[in-house]
Amino acid sequence: MTLAVRRTAFPSRVTVVVLLALAAGLLFAHRLYRTAEISLSGAILSVISSYGVDVIPERQTVYFGLGSDTPLGLRMTPECTSAFLVLPLIVVGAVMIALRPRIQSRVLFALGIAALAVVIVNQFRVLTLVGLVDWLGVDTGYYWGHTLLGSMVSVFGGAAALVAFVWLATRK
């Protein structure tokens, strides 16, 4: 008579707990995440803009076009952050690892790529808005950049990130 010792997937359980803690952290500390995100926007704008850029981190606001005819401040609100697009990816990744521990490395890789894609898409959205404000003026540029084109960038970018996540996580 032999006793089979069941191997537990301890590292995958730890990974699941860490991912769920990360998801909770994003939910409860989204202000810190937005601060980092708007600071990244300010850094990118400082490099590509010929006008002044100023970031007020405690307000999650970037001011751009300083010294031009169309200065504007953008505040990264909870609705506009990439955190709430990354959050479901993290939770789904945790569930996938909990159900199939052997795909942990694929899921983590896919999660990293998809999260990076969502952050890049959101930065592109901000840059699109800035470009349209510069080109069309504050009223028209903000309308087109935030309401229409910015929303389309977020939807298509988020969908592409989700498709990439699923494809990378589930392929053999």
- What would you call the shape? elongated
User: From the helix content, strand content and strand pairing, which structural class follows?
Assistant: mainly alpha
Please give the order of strands in the largest beta sheet.
1-2-3
Report the total helices.
Answer: 5
Radius of gyration from the CA trace?
20 Å
> pLDDT average, as an integer?
90
Assembly of the depicted chains: single chain
Q: What is the H/E order?
A: HHEEEHHH
In which range does the helix fraction lie? over 70%
Topology, element by element:
Blueprint: H1 10-28, H2 30-48, E1 52-56, E2 61-66, E3 72-75, H3 83-99, H4 104-136, H5 138-170
Antiparallel strand pairs: 1-2, 2-3
Helix pairs in contact: 1-3, 2-4, 3-4, 4-5
3D structure, described in words:
The chain has 172 residues and is mainly α. 70% of the residues lie in helices and 9% in strands. It is built from five helices and three strands. It has helices at residues 10-28, 30-48, 83-99, 104-136, 138-170; strands at residues 52-56, 61-66, 72-75. It has a three-stranded antiparallel beta sheet with strand order 1-2-3. The model has no long low-confidence stretch (mean pLDDT 90).
